[in-house]
Amino acid sequence: NTAESGVNPDDVKITFGKQEDILIRGGVVVNADMQFKSDVLIKNGKIAQVGLNILSPGARILNATGMYVMPGGIDPHVHFELPFMGTVSKDDFLSGTQAAVAGGTTFVMDFAIPLGREISPLEAFEQYKKLGEAKSVCDFGLHVAITKLNQDGDREKIVRDMAEVVKRGVNSFKFFMAYKGTLQIEDHDLIRAFALARELGAISMVHAENGDLVQEGQRKLLRQGIHGPEGHSFSRPPEVEAEAVHRASVIANQVGAPLYVVHVMSQAAMEEIARAKAKGYRIVGEAIAAGLTLNETAVFDRDWNRAARYVMSPPIRSIDDQHALVNGLKTRTLDLVGTDHCTFDTEQKRLGVDDFTKIPNGVNGIEERMTALFDRLVHTGKLTPSDYVRVTSTEAAQIFNIYPQKGVIAVGSDADVILLDPSKKKVVYHTEHHINIDYNVYDHWSFWGSVETTISNGRIVWNNGTLYTEQGTGRFVPTPAFGKMFHGLESETFHSSDYFAGHSNGKKKGVNRNGSY
Ligand code: URP
Ligand code: ZN
Ligand code: ZN
Ligand code: ZN
């Protein structure tokens, strides 16, 4: 049905990939709050008009009959060219964002991680921002990871960096409670860092696993002679994830810091979020595509290369966990969905061929998230199309405080728009995907709901199976502090120094509202 959907391929005047006036006609616009039949006019990279029977002579016409016209997906959790576990993840900001737009995602948030090199959070932020600006084909934002508070004996350096990156457009800090010896931050630093983030109006994000227990579990399994990928799962059971969620939620609540738990993978961990929400804590839970679609049997594949593809942390769990997570989205115990896209090819995975603790952790998903979720959530009848838009786009835009610039089809918003055909199946083949690895964890899977056209800032970057991208067209979008998780806290006086008076050279000082001292 290529002739009637999307752009007519016979049109010789096609200027794909360039900003142009686009009139999307005859589709059903789906926002998080409602859906309605409407045309959408795009001018100068923005949505200019939403309504019936729009006329705009000279605009390129996209026929959206039978399609949903939705805000482009926002993936709040990706890792491009991440130096990690002795190697560097394969997809960079170019292949990663190309795959994103091919799958209907138009905004990604990566993590600037000062890892494997003695650089500061501010330097990591500037490095990642530069990489993203040079290579991205869609807009992006950044979180900054804090792995310690003491750099070169200077306990104030990181504190200054945190304030500075917030000024430069970061409203979220990531803390790893696992990966002991590399990324893991200790609890006493976590308390202070949450308080600092709270003071700055930035969200505290946690990778929640008890890294000390994981390390003990790994040692025990290796001693027992378990070296294969299944050891990865055995060393990180759900309790080890749930305990860290519980601990993080209590610490965050004690210091009044809003908390975002990334990649919730188990029912046990999810129940800790439900408990915290019931107590009134400011907490949100992120599911990832892999957790909602895959299950642990893959890690037990007799073929080592195949099993290793599914090694990520926290591990992919049981089918019961998978179903619980899907239902958690429905009941809003979980708030939104990312991917944690972090890819290593077979050769890189084989770094751990004799020792599961050395298998680089991570799975793909950026190109499949939108279609996989449409299939599992909407096609199954569990979520409405509006709920789908909320968990794949709007909620992230609101949490990271870039709504309504992103996350909605409305006049004045960025023209990040997708046309999704709910009656067409998308079949995934690793030979056709746009990511930079030699396999795909969804190889030969088919999903109801195919993204036929993707528009990024008024450019048609994906249409009928073809990419029209230009490297470097993506912009860094600053995420302002004090977003919706801080509602009601904006005007409260808060001194993080109250939580670590003893640490701060005895000096009691706070960071003021502008992030200066
Ligand atoms: O296994 C994973 N999740 N790899 C990416 C890094 C992280 O922990 O998010
Ligand atoms: Zn993680
Ligand atoms: Zn608990
Ligand atoms: Zn991650």
TrEMBL record:
CDD domains the UniProt entry points to: D-HYD
Organism field: Acrasis kona
Any one GO cellular component localisation term in the record: cytosol
Lineage: Eukaryota, Discoba, Heterolobosea, Tetramitia, Eutetramitia
Family: Belongs to the metallo-dependent hydrolases superfamily. Hydantoinase/dihydropyrimidinase family.
Protein name stated in the entry: dihydropyrimidinase
Superkingdom, natural source: Eukaryota
Reactions listed under catalytic activity: 5,6-dihydrouracil + H2O = 3-(carbamoylamino)propanoate + H(+)
EC number: 3.5.2.2
SUPFAM superfamilies the UniProt entry points to: Composite domain of metallo-dependent hydrolases, Metallo-dependent hydrolases
Keywords: Hydrolase, Metal-binding, Signal, Zinc
InterPro entries given in the database record: Amidohydro-rel, Hydantoinase/dihydroPyrase, Metal-dep_hydrolase_composite, Metal_Hydrolase, Metallo-dep_Hydrolases_sf
Positions of post-translational N6-carboxylysine modification: 174
Membrane in keyword set: no
Amidohydrolase-related domain residues: 68-461
GO molecular function: dihydropyrimidinase activity; metal ion binding
Cofactor names: Zn(2+)
Description of how the protein assembles with itself and partners: Homotetramer.
